[in-house]
Amino acid sequence: MPQISPKSLVSETAELAEDVAVGPFSYIGPEVRLDAGCVIQNNVSLVGKTTLGQGCVVFPLAVIGVPAPGEAEGGQCILGEANAIREHVTICAGLDAPTRIGNHNLIMIASQIGAGATVGDHGIFDNYSRIGAGAVVEDYVRTSGFAVIADGNRLGAYSFVAAFGSVVHDGPPYAMLQGSPVRVRGVNTRNLKACGFGGDDIQALKRAFRELFNGPENQVNPKVLLRLASRKDLNPYVRKLVEAVRSASANEADDD
Q1: Residue 4: pLDDT over 70
Q2: Of 35, 74, 84, 182, which residue is the least packed, with the fewest Cβ within 10 Å?
């Protein structure tokens, strides 16, 4: 049976795996589902249509599945496996589309995830990070404290946002981003090495970054972008970078 503190409140219709543990003064709502190995510590609130995959740990005073301000209840949150949700984190439920968080993420103290946001796998989000409503954050992203990914924007895989950085347009993969609004400062070499990227691939990305982001105010050089896109022998990681930059440029043109 699940180990449920007598000082917690767990709805009779909530679905808890046999080895789930729930600490004191926590609330588990009627449409919540907790898979095997989940640990819900004290003073946690899980509401709405919220699902946690295997091995998730939720720390004190975190709230998952709450409606976004001004929105109705009934939204959905879907979390994958082995996520650590630290103290005071708030994850809002999505109404039009579920809020989705992948596997093996660390979401640190007082961070916020907006309604309908999508977070990939293996992310680390430092204290007070904010991922806006409808934003998309790809795999292996890192943020420092107080970083912001604004509503509806995409942040590419393996990127890093420095402290107090504000991503107000789509951020490219593999990049180190800094400032408010952020500017590309180079390749996120340390993260790429830690994730097993080879030296040749990292050097190819560095060359592409130097060529692409050498314009005034960090603007993408359109001639370089076109030339790289037309190459048949392009490094696969550089190809992904080029595709992401082209997509971001198209989105910005549509917004204008």
Answers
A1: yes
A2: 74
